[in-house]
Design a protein that fits this description.
The protein is of the alpha+beta class. It contains twelve helices and eight strands. The longest helix is centred in the middle third of the chain and has 24 residues.
């Protein structure tokens, strides 16, 4: 095998998926290489798409607890780890020209730097009691991946279309950026202030209308899971995710999927087009959001 696409299989993509799953499992390259009985250099070549033996790929899939078809991107790629999923998002965003998505409450890529600082705190407080060292390291790894995503987005500036649910925004303003509901009143108020500032950041984006960024507020009911469409030069890729980075985040339970299956792509392209067609945009969206902030956000 080689790193070039052949017979519909792109070995560079396989190597990228392998790396994402390794990172998601918290395995250093030396550790995985030792478990497989190969050198670190050999594993590095595999992660770059230089895959010479199917036996090596099978052994890696078994060690990482992922199916060989999923690792190869055959059909649907199922992902039960948020760290793996967001690393795959980073990889897909590196190669796309356009991102279309329904986000909750807003696309992470468009959030402020203050959001990152608070999100780390929120993820730690949403962790179950008695979380072990590996669980805490998972949160740190996730934050590192998210930071890399945002930095790459700001450098590359692919076109992004962000669909925002008005219901999610209302809940975000009412509850604040929180990991659980049993917080002291003083902290809850601080988190509601943080949510207000993030909503004001979104409002400023609506008003400034930066090149390459389109946002719309959707007032009709939206799917319970978020989705993103990555349009690349030679294909489009769909990602559907149960993971949340907003109010009451979920980074622990759920199964995300990634696919380029034509039927799934068409159905979600149609949903995105319908939601975008009915969404509030530009000055109208800014006015609506300003009223929402005044109605639901804590006063400052």
């Amino acid at each position: 095998m080689s790193s070039n696409a052949a017979d519909g299989v792109n070995f560079g993509d396989i190597g990228a998926r392998l790396r994402a799953h390794r990172l998601g499992r918290g395995l250093a390259p030396e550790t995985l290489a030792a478990k497989l009985g190969i050198s670190r250099a050999a594993l590095y070549r595999v992660e770059k798409g230089d895959i010479r033996k199917i036996e090596t790929l099978t052994a890696i899939a078994n060690e990482l607890g992922v199916s060989l078809p999923s690792l190869m991107g055959v059909g649907v790629e199922y992902i039960s780890s948020s760290t793996v999923f967001f690393e795959r998002m980073r990889q897909l965003e590196e190669e796309c020209q356009q991102i279309i998505g329904l986000f909750s409450p807003v696309s992470y890529l468009l959030t402020s730097d203050r959001y990152d600082e608070m999100l780390s705190t929120v993820l730690h407080e949403s962790a179950p009691a008695g979380i072990d060292k590996d669980g805490l390291q998972m949160i740190d790894q996730l934050m590192s991946t998210l930071a890399a995503r945002k930095a790459a987005f700001r450098e590359r500036r692919p076109h992004i279309v962000s669909l925002i649910s008005s219901v999610d925004l209302e809940r975000f303003l009412l509850n604040g950026l929180i990991g659980r509901h049993d917080l002291p009143n003083e902290i809850s108020t601080q988190r509601r202030i943080a949510a207000r500032r993030e909503a004001e950041h979104i409002l400023a984006t609506f008003e400034s209308q930066p090149i390459g960024v389109q946002m719309g507020i959707v007032r009709e009911p939206v799917p319970a899971t978020s989705f993103q469409i990555f349009r690349q030069a030679d294909r489009s890729v769909l990602a559907i995710s149960p993971f949340r980075l907003g109010e009451q985040p979920n980074v622990r339970l759920g199964v995300a999927l990634i696919t380029s299956a034509p039927e799934a792509m068409t159905l979600h392209e149609d949903i995105a087009a319908r939601l975008w067609g009915s969404a509030l945009k530009g000055a109208e969206a800014a006015s609506y959001l300003r009223e929402m902030i005044a109605k639901y956000a804590v006063a400052v």
